[in-house]
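User: Could you go from structure to sequence for me? I need the amino acid at each position, not a summary. Structure tokens:
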């Protein structure tokens, strides 16, 4: 009986152990399944997050590429300034660089960079950057000139900046900005300024033209009308001849003024293009001198000075005669005594120098260029429209030449035509 009870207890104990083992196995199996499910869920979530992060990274890379492309297209540079150290660092630099290029060294402050600027711009730029770094201003925008190393030249640059980061008290921590070269824009601005000035000058010249023409034309016209009205009352032959001579003289003056205006109009419109032919210089100059002798003032001698009996050149005869005529007229106006000489030097390098020298009142050095401006007159009391020398220079330029003036007040002048031959 005892043995049976012992066996029964043993069997029950074995059964209990087997039940506990099964329970443990089932529990462990359940936990494993739950763990696997959680692991799968975590893996899927991690995969989704990783996929999202990869897509964001791809977008970021794409945005960086687009950002760099925009910077390249606009030729911009981006930079930032640490407001504590004042160090300026360039993040990207796609500016158009010339042969010589001014750059900052790593760790340089913006005040170090002032050595690259044209002296007149240094104080203004340093103050503007200091103001934005200390919080006095919220934005920065300046144009300035940067020196090109080892030369006296410079290029133009434009920069803009804003405060990117601030501390809890609102003080700037980091300033970011952009810079770009603006040489072309500055050239365009200057061209616009020049065009405006030229338009204003044209208006002034137009007013001067009307004023001069009204005065210059009225003067000989008044003389012609006045002397003509006196003719019927004049009985003496000598007095009549004198009046007729005065009328003819003023007729010539009036015709000369109109002729000058027509000449400069033809030149500017392109209707007076040079006609090149073979011209004998000596006879051409003598012909002009002979026609002009009658206008010579008393006490002034007119002569020629040629280095050889004949000289043939290729040029426009009408232009040559017209230029010499204007130079002689100019000499006649300002020479009251002494002499006027017309001559030339033998050609050198296929160019000839034809000159008109006088012993007149001379021209100050500072007016040597102004006398070639249309309607400009050194002496308002001397007759003339101020067109002779401008016509002379324009004709010389149309032949590929120029007019050179050498003059000293009180000692006379020498005007030289340098033209190809």
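Assistant: Here is the amino acid at each position, in order:
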């Amino acid at each position: 009986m005892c043995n049976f009870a012992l066996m029964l207890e043993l069997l029950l104990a074995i059964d209990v152990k087997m039940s506990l083992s099964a329970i443990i196995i089932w529990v462990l199996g359940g936990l494993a399944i739950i763990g696997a499910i959680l692991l799968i869920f975590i893996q899927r979530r991690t995969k989704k997050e990783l996929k999202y992060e990869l897509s964001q990274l791809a977008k970021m890379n794409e945005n960086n590429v687009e950002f760099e492309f925009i910077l390249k297209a606009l030729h911009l540079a981006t930079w930032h300034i640490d407001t504590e150290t004042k160090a300026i660092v360039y993040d990207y630099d796609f500016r158009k660089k010339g042969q010589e290029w001014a750059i900052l060294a790593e760790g340089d402050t913006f005040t170090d960079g002032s050595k690259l600027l044209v002296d007149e711009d240094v104080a203004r730029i340093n103050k503007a950057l200091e103001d934005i770094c200390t919080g006095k201003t919220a934005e920065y925008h300046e144009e300035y000139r940067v020196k090109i190393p080892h030369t006296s030249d410079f290029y133009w640059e434009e920069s803009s900046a804003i405060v990117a980061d601030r501390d809890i008290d609102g003080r700037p921590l980091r300033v970011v900005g952009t810079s770009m070269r603006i040489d072309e824009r500055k050239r365009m601005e200057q061209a616009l300024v020049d065009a405006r000035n030229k338009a204003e000058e044209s208006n002034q010249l137009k007013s001067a033209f009307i004023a001069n023409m009204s005065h210059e034309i009225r003067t000989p016209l008044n003389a012609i009308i006045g002397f003509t009205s006196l003719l019927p009352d004049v009985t003496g032959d000598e007095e009549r001849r004198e009046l007729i001579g005065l009328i003819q003289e003023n007729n010539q003056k009036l015709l000369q003024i109109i002729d000058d205006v027509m000449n400069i109009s033809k030149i500017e419109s392109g209707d007076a293009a040079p006609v090149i032919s073979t011209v004998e210089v000596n006879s051409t100059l003598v012909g002009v001198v002979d026609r002009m002798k009658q206008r010579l003032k008393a006490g002034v001698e007119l002569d020629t000075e040629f280095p050889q009996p004949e000289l043939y050149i290729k040029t426009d005869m009408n232009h040559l005669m017209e230029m010499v005529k204007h130079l002689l007229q100019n000499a006649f106006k300002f020479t009251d005594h002494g002499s006027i000489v017309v001559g030339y030097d033998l050609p050198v390098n296929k160019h000839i120098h034809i000159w008109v020298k006088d012993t007149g009142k001379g021209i100050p050095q500072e007016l040597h260029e102004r006398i070639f401006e249309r309607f400009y007159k050194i002496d308002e009391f001397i007759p003339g429209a101020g067109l002779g020398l401008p016509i002379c220079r324009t004709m010389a330029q149309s032949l590929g030449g120029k007019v050179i003036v050498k003059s000293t007040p009180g000692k006379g002048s020498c005007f030289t035509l340098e033209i190809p031959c």
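One structural detail worth keeping in mind: DSSP finds eight helices and twelve strands in the chain.
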